[in-house]
Amino acid sequence: MFGYIIINKAEMKFREFDVYHSYYCGLCRRLKEKYGFLGQITLSYDMTFLVMLLTGLYEPETQEKHYKCAAHPFEKHLARINMFTDYAADMNVLFSYYKCRDDWEDERKLWKLAYEKLLKPKYRRVEGAYGEKVLRVDRLLREISRGERSREQNIDRMAGQFGEVMAEIFAWNKDEWEESLRKTGFYLGKFVYLMDAYEDLDKDRKKGTYNPFFELSGSGEFEENSRNILTMMMAECSREFETLPILKDVEILRNILYSGVWCRYEAVHKQRQEKKGERL
Description:
Elements: H1 14-40, H2 46-58, E1 63-67, E2 77-81, H3 83-107, H4 110-129, H5 131-149, H6 155-170, H7 178-207, H8 222-241, H9 250-258, H10 263-279
Antiparallel strand pairs: 1-2
Helix pairs in contact: 1-2, 1-3, 2-3, 3-4, 4-5, 5-6, 6-7, 7-8
């Protein structure tokens, strides 16, 4: 479920993109330093949003330094690194481990099993640092797996469980902002789960694998209904986000929540409509 919490670059100023990319580079740097190459290749844009969200809210001391790397060997790039970069790196490894486990259990991809085993020592480090959080995430993901195996068609229940996973990740600390961060993560998590199901619908139907949209997709109003559901999730997420006293780089965060998360939807929807037109 990676690749949905992204920017809409076309609607960004050059300065904003440079700032966003510096947090992304910082996350890449810390993944490599903490977990080596195996950790670095788990890098995703999704966790960059979390770094910027928590940075904007708590305003920690942030190191700014230029680095060269394998991806940019001839030119140094600015990386911004703070305590939340480390936290997001840990959560990135956690999600990657679970994704490998899930892919192995669902599709029996041997390379996913091998990668899971390679990531397991790194997962154990995260587990040791965030014991209770990891236990709750693990329990929720196992509940999702059971629901998928039983082909649960209660969409709200299934999406809600993944929403709880994201709520757990977003709630960095038990303080005055915990409830708002949980709600922001919860609705964003529901959107991500449903968006992933929307994108995989045709593939899952061909393979005979589980998808919570199967029953709803039988309706002639599926496209409209699914868009409405996704819109409601992001409306709730954005409403809660706006209650947080964030000023630093807030326009970048808004770009992601109001526009970026819809980029994959628009691409998938357009492709689906074109295929439908070809069949007609």
